[in-house]
Structures are given as structure tokens and as C-alpha cells.
What does this fold into?
Amino acid sequence: MIAMSKSLVLLAAFGSKALGQGVAAVPAVAAVPAVPAVAAAPGSTLVDVGGLTVTTQGETETPVNVPTSAPVIVVPPSDVLCPEMTAFGVDTYMHMPAWSFLRVVHVMQKNPLGAADSKIGTITAKLGSWSTEFELKDPINNELIAKFVNSPGFWETSQKVYDCKDNEIATISWKLTGESTIRYTEHKVFDPAGNHIADLHEEDKATPKGFFSGFTQTFIYLRDTGGKALASMRHPEEGFKFLMLKGDKLTASIEMLSLDMLAPKPSMDPEFLSLVFANNLANGNRFGPGLSLIGFFVVIFFMLGCCFVMCCSSKKAQVAASKAQEKVIEEKEGLLATRVNSDPAAGDKVPVQGRSMFACCSRRAGEASEVKAPAPK
It folds into this structure.
């Protein structure tokens, strides 16, 4: 019994020793190198957020929310850049309200799905300017995009296009000739550096022909210096009518005839094309189509009335002058009769012819040879 217990003790000691040697024999797993710690600046805290280390100056260790959405595009301040107009689509047109105080042209884009057409620009005439100016504004925010300035008179042969910061975008000029006063002749387009980039010509398919077509609406198209058409205004419709009076066309489409992206700026810019075409659709008038038409006939009637009054006044003046002349003659005849009665020798004198009312300064009654000498006493 005692021998059995000793053997068990020896077996347990031998097993524990063997087990210790087995554990030591197992190869150790390589330890993962520790990530070097980032030293925090004095008064700062290092916060680990999803593998990102954020340093907060003098703040407690609070979780930091790192945004996971798309980055926000930084928009320049409004005092640096002007708003841009939406590019023209397939069906872009211009429309003028008939009864507006100032001339207004809406640049519209048709919706192919049959919904309401969208407005991509509003062009309005400016009231307090010496020459006629048109301002293109964003229809949503009502912010100025660009403006078109007409010449103050026929003697000025240039038009200017400016952006919202009064920086010149383009200049349109033409030659002053007898034809240019009654028709739309070739207009050359220059960029701010003075380079000739395009030309404006009258659209033969849309403009009604006539000797005085330049005094009515003129539909034009833009072409490059090589003669290639770029854009045009066509299909005028919805003519304005008031009673028996016929006025301007209210709608015209803008057709892009080329997709040349290498055309020099601003020939293909929607801001430039909208202002140039709208100016011709409005015919350079400051006031709305209805007021312009009515005002035109009011001026005509006023001028005719002035002519009638002047003619009537002239006839009355002639009658009054003839009556005054007759009165002067009667007074002279009365004086001569009184002189003959007082001086019998005066009867031998030749009657003096009456003078005109305009010869008031002349005291000569007649030539000396026409008066007889008095008879000797």
C-alpha cells in the first residue's frame, strides 16, 4: 500500500515535469508590432475615431463625428463671379408679354414630357437710362447676369454687352450708311480684346421684306468669320393686335445651327445670344408692345393736330392782316378828304397811293415830280 502510494507520487512528479517541457517546446507566436504612439501637444488630447487621429486643443476626450457624405463644392462669393445661364436645349424660344409697362422678354425652354415650360432667363428694359438697356436676370433669384446697351442715336454705330460687374463681354458695330438707317446691315462682333469673332446678318426666312424693314422687327442669325451659321432666331408668331392696329411679333424660337465648341467666346454663350436676339425681338423699344403701339399713333395724331392748328392760325392771321390794311386805307382816304375841304389848292395834287402796312417807317408820300407846285398868288 505504501509502495503503491510512492509510485503514484513519482508518476505525478514525472508527468508535471514532462508537461512543463512540452509547453515550453511549443513555438511562440510572433508578437504584432505595436503602433507608435503619437505624442500629444501640451494642452491637447488625441482622440481615435475609426482609425483617424484627431487632435483637439484643450478639449475633453469626446467622440468626433467624421462626415462620410460627398464633399461639398466650394462656391466662390457672389462678388467674384456672375451667375451663369442654363445652356439652350433643343426647343428654346423667347416670348414677350403684350401688356407690360416696360419691355420684357422671357427665355423659355419647352418640356418634352408635356409639362409646363421652364423659364431660364428674364430680360427687362431699364427705365432710368439714357439709351435703351436690357438686363438679363436669373428668374429664380432675380440676380443680374448680363446686360445689353444700345447706342443713344443713329450717329453711334456700336452696341455693348457687359456682365454683372460691368466688364465688357462683346462689342457689336456696323458702318453708318444710307442703307443702314432703314435696313439691318452686317454687324460685326468683337471680343473684349478687339478680335473680330463673328457677324450678325438679317434672317431672310423670317424677316418681312420691305424698304423700311429696318424700322420694324428684324430677325437675325449669327455666323462665324468663315460664313458658317451658328445660331438663329426663327418662326415668329403671335403677332400683337389691338382693335384695328397690328403690332410686333411676340414669340420667336432660338435655333442652334452648330455645336462647334471651339467657336470663340462669347459667340456661343447663352447669355450673349439671349440678349442679342431679345434686343431685335423688342426692336430696341423700352416700353411694352401695347404701350409702344398706342403711343406711336398718339404721337401721329398729335403731330397732325399741330399741323391743323397751325394752318387755321395762318388763315386767321391772313384775314386779320387784310382787315387791318383796309382800315388803314380808309383812314387815309378820310384824311385826304378833310385836307381837300380845308385847302382848295390841294385838289390839284395827285392822290397819293396808299402804302403797305410794312412801310410804316417811310414818310415819303410820293415822288417830287408827281406833286404840282402851288399856283402863284
